[in-house]
Amino acid sequence: MNQSCADLTTMTWRCTEFAIDMLDGHAEPTAADLAPLTQAVADWARAGVPLDAIQHAIHTGFRRGLAEFTTRVNPANAGDITTGVALAISLLTVITSTASLAYLGELRSVLCERRGAATTLAAALLGGRSTKTMARECGITIAESYTVLALGLPSAPTQVATNRTIGRIQDELTTHAESGVLSLLGPGGGTVLIPAPTLTDDEVNDLVKRLSAAAEVEVTATSTHATVPGIPAAAEHTRELLNLVRQAHNTPGLYRFDNFALEYQLTRPGPARRLLATQLDPLDAHPDLFKTLRIHLANELNRRRTGRQLHIHANTVDYRMQRIKQLTGLDPALPSDLWQLRSALIARLSEGPRP
User: Fold this and answer.
1) CB 82 within 8 A of CB 37
2) Which of 76, 222, 265, 320 could staple 292 via S-S, CB 3.0–4.6 A?
3) According to the model, what pLDDT value does residue 266 have?
4) pTM of this prediction?
5) Residue 131 contacts by C-beta under 8 Å, 6 or more apart in sequence?
6) Among 2.120.10.30, 1.10.8.50, 3.40.50.300, 1.10.10.2840, what is the CATH number of 269-350?
7) For residue 314, what are the CA distances in angstroms to 142, 257, 318?
């Protein structure tokens, strides 16, 4: 019999004694009387003993105590039996509640400690600092490579709402904690590190969907793969790509760096980017046309979808695209000009808003 089983057996007999004492007329146990039980339950929670095993031990003790009591009572005196059962249920409620609160309190404490350790480790990996000693202290194994996931969250109306959203995402990520998934989150999003090959690409995509469902907000994410030394640079790349995706008003979801390498390269500073961006200068005096172009390209030129998003008729979308063609000299109906418009838009967005 291991130590936990032995301790649970001891608690069973202690609950039997509680029941017999109270049924014999003694007072309900005080908080001081229950302190050893509270401490034992907290220790079991930290050791990973299931709560149902603890509750089973408590109920077993009470069944024994009630059985002992009934052997002392005259069966003809139903009043004593009824009173005894009522007292037993009252005491059982007190002890069960005490044990449950102690267990859940310790579980929350353990969870906070583990989250804190995982957050510290994630910050170290993202900062390029040595993590071997820290990982050993946290009981977390560092993988050779990771899927680096940048998360983008919509702004919340209050700090309370922001904290609630982050908490829900952390709760969902906790289901993968045993796999070594690490996260560093804050207002607006953060970074998640998933040990490779813990999740396949399809499973990472499903994870982003579950995070959206859990947080009850639309999550946009970008991802890439990196070895441990390359994590800081990969995290920076995914954040930049995330900004690009959100600026372009792409729909929420997961976007992989591998599929956006060209777009990312177009955002690199230099004369080529400046030249591309100037192709949309004629739209500076027409912000409605610039917005239409950005949304229409994000919608893959679906005029009805763009119209619904802008609250205008689909024919108005066509008219605005014709105006863009007249002002820029680029026709979105031609594949070569469409590619040029997309590139110019990416370059323009990467430069930030014009004064």
Assistant:
1) no
2) 320
3) 77
4) 0.59
5) 121, 124, 125, 142, 228
6) 1.10.10.2840
7) 53, 33, 7
